[in-house]
Amino acid sequence: MNNSALTFTPPRSVYVHVPFCKHRCGYCDFTVVENRLDLETSFLQAIETELSWLETPRPVDTVFIGGGTPTEMSPAGLTKLFELLGDWFPREQGGSASESSEFSVEANPDGLTAEKVAILHDHGVNRLSLGAQSFNNEKLQSLDRQHSAKDVANALQLARETFPQVSLDLIFAAPGESLASWREDLEAAIQSGVDHVSTYGLTFEKGTSFWSQMNHGTMVVVDESLQRDMYLLTIDLLTTAGFEHYEISNFARPGSAGNNRCRHNEVYWTGGSWFAIGPGASRFVDGTRSTNHRSTTAYLNRVLKGESPVAESEPLDAEMIARERLVFGLRRIEGINIAEFNEHAGFDLESLAGPAIQEFCELGLLEPSDGNLRLTRKGLLVSDSLWPDLL
Amino acid sequence: MAKKIPQKNIRNFCIVAHIDHGKSTLADRMLEVTGTVQKREMKAQLLDDMELERSRGITIKARSVAMRYKLKGQEYELNLIDTPGHVDFHYEVSRALICCEGALLLADAFQGVEAQTVANGYAAMEHDLKIVPVINKVDLVNARVDQVKEELEQTLAVDPDEVMPVSAKTGVGVEDLLQSIVANIPPPEGDPEATLQAMVFDSLYDAYRGAIIYVRIMNGTVKKGQKIKLLRKGTTHEVVELGQFAPKREAREELCAGQVGYLICNIKSLDDVHIGDTVSVIGNDAAEPLEGYQEPKRMVYCGLYPSDGQDFEELRDALTKLAINDPSFEFEPETSDALGFGFRCGFLGLLHMEIVQQRLEQEADVDLVQTAPNVTYEIVDQNGNVNEIHKPQDVPDSGKISEFRQPIVRVNMVQPEEYIGSVMKLCGERRGIHVRTEYLSPTRMMLTYDIPLAEVIYDLHDKLKSATRGYGTMDYELRGYEQADLVRMDILVNGKKVDALAIICNRADADRRGRSVVKKLKNEIDRHMFEVAVQAAIGTRVIARETVKAMRKNVTAKCYGGDISRKRKLWQKQKEGKKRMKSIGRVDIPQKAFMAVLDTGDDKGK
After folding, report:
1. pTM score, whole prediction
2. Is the pLDDT of residue B296 over 50?
């Protein structure tokens, strides 16, 4: 089977990247511009231009506006952005995110004013992802965050009153963090009543201030075995509280309106395709992965000159698409459905990775379950060591 | 066409020196002063045309160059036969010596007499060559010419009045040196009218011309178009071209007794050309064969395996190509449970091994796994048969061994007096037996030890350098085989014996070596998803054990749209990395680990 035989269904999702931030946190290596709202007008112009290259409006089921801090934009700027997106990415309105279309926006607790929340709500945003990271002031400081525990509480209250779905981002293994302190964060998250939690161990990315502090020995990385305990505690506490652990870092509490998973992210993990707009944004369209220039100014310059903002582009062959689908599918806790995989991935699981899967099953890292293949708990903890053999 | 030079105006000589004493620079300068090479064509180390020789600043292959030199109305032909200086290439040195009547004995004005100055100086004397002593780098501010003269007198009985001071760098004294060569080195003997008798002292394979044979004409004359015979195999060939190196190949009509040059005879394979063979005429009137060279003995062996099993044939081609111009290197296929299909390769010494490996990597694009080098052992079985052992895996069970022997070398080490204590301690640790101590001058001494070669090959040279702040130099020659209390130590990874990691060591050292090797391996092996046990054992007895703990947590948290291709590439890269490792059971062992067994355990307590 080759690429030409593959048919790609048009994307039904879009990711939009908004690079503005009041402050770049010490661990952050995303496409971000610090304190440059002066670029807002050119940014909106560039977005408008990039959108116009779609030629026709593309109806979608999920929209995700991430950053940066999208809510850092001015009320007028936000309104303009939503109008543009509404024109080019029409979606079914009304109802909950699970029922009709999902419209997520990322926000930071500080600067999330009632005015902006209202703008979001008026334009159909039905899922807010709040970058709280912690409920503990000391830890927030050690993470170089600008907001306080109080800001988190206020933002949460506002968000919960307004949006049918609210998700919390939490970081564990912050410098100096103890298991007890992490337990308090988890308990606070459960108490807060949110429907969704995404949680990540702090990572040290090249080029960040944390990276150089780590290399100079001025910042100590939490030891692997404590990190492991923190992760296991996360799984245990959240699942006991009724959350479904549905992807390595993601937990959702099913409600009356559905399972509350992030539909948009599920598109990424199940081999789906999506559009992307904005600096540093990555898309997967017609079997090709491509990424816009990661420098915001370079992105703006290119688009405003009428040039393509794409900095990297990689067409994938059918086998690589199938392998990605296998690996990223297995990162979902329910794993992959073998029959469905064989039918849709264009490759038979056995021929693609039979011996490796066999070996991992023998080692107790993978297991078959009800027609699915999934990670065991043991496998989950060391899953990055499995992927090289499956790719 | 160059004018024919009478035999009495020919001088054949070589330069013998310790490495880095400026041999190649002196050769460069003589080429320039004699006008053999114009100044603008000059580049450093002109005679070293292998890229590796230039980059490492050493000479590996022998070669010759003919220079014309005018003195007092007479024209002379000076043939310089350049030779490698390193101990591993001893046999190349002796090949060159046979072709010469004289030798420039070169010593650095600051470094003075070093181990290889002595060794190569003796070799030249044993061949009855006229010695022209030269002190180089006299322009150095810290030159100590008088003391070096004394050292030369003390070690090699050189007459201090005969020593020629030069600076090969600036050219000072080079003209005088050329005159001294003419005056002191005797012209070659041999009758140009006699039956052809020429010594093959090297050969090179040229892709277009086939074998290029380097010869010194002992008797007779060889002409273009003439039929010749190589006496060893009795094969006959027609000389399609002959000539001299000046320094590029220059065709001549003939080469006469006493001259040095090359022959091209449409020989398609170097297998037909033996170094040390004699060239003569066809028919029944051929000359007597000259006394040839001793086949160089390969003292160090190691396994070379392609990282990727798919590259086996490529590796074979690369080795074959290398062996064509390096007859001292040999290889044969071998199989290892751990490493798959590869080759056991024999080298003259460690430097030779390193050079071959570098050339393989440079000239052929094959990623290699090398096993730890070992020396050639001898095992006498119960029936009194002596078997050579080239790899530890071949050592039989102890019940089948009546005697286990290892090669012993005599090592000469030259260093300033104040380091004698630390060098003696080093030799003691390496099971050396003291032979003698000599003063070269009031401040420099030469120590002589008999040491098992196995203790020498890996790092004795490095250790000597660090024990003497870089001043110590060494040279060694094989003495013979001696019985020793040796055992084979096996390494097991998760209970599985890894053949390529086995070593032979002294029984008394086994515990220390074992502990040190498993510790090193523990650090080389990445953590796996399960625990990995690394053990050292003699027979069935485990003497050391380390555990590589299982990985506790290895999971990427964040993975959204933009992360997918980045993560996938990272994991693909890790997959490539894993492919280059060798799997024993389910344990991935990095290539570097196969050298870990060389750890002698000296660093204990550090």
Report:
1. 0.67
2. yes
